[in-house]
Amino acid sequence: MSNSLYYTLALICVIGIIWGIRLMNSPKTAISGNLLGAISLSITVLLTLLKYGILSDYVLWAGMIAGGLIGYYISIKVTMLKIPQMVALFNGLGGGASGLVAIIILAENHNIENLFIKITAVLGLIVGWVTFSGSIVAALKLDQKISQKPIQLKKHNLIIGISSALTCIFAILLIIKPSGSLLF
Predict the structure, then answer these.
(1) Could you give the 3-state DSSP secondary structure of residue 36?
(2) Which of 106, 163, 165, 169 has its CA 20 to 30 A from that of 65?
(3) CA dihedral over 119, 45, 74, 25, signed as positive or negative
(4) Is a pLDDT exceeding 80 seen at residue 1?
């Protein structure tokens, strides 16, 4: 597939996704907007898999089928009142996924020379796991599985300060470590 064809089709799919989101503004058109967005996004994924020649990866297809079945099951079981919890859960899972990707990039590529890639991976790791933990707490609070009241630990500011400092130190060590060496 040529680059121009790929980018043209991808642009059409992006327009479909945006138009689908636009249609979700009204209850009358929300179903068709959701369908248009889902189809456009699916075509975009398939185009990308085709473009980069990874259509034959069976693990990828198994994951997509399993995810599709789980998503379908959730979509027919979740009531409208549980949508905020579901959105928080999906947001958290997306953050966790980006954190896992960052871990894989950092673990498999011990000799990353490009500073931009190192910084991006470290930021993906931090933001991904903060998003994961915060969204899971939000989903649990929305579902009233944990207390709605803010929880303030003793020495809260000290704990936050130490964790933030350790996160920054860890991030800097990951970024400046020599190529080919492990962190520890």
Answers:
(1) helix
(2) 106
(3) positive
(4) no
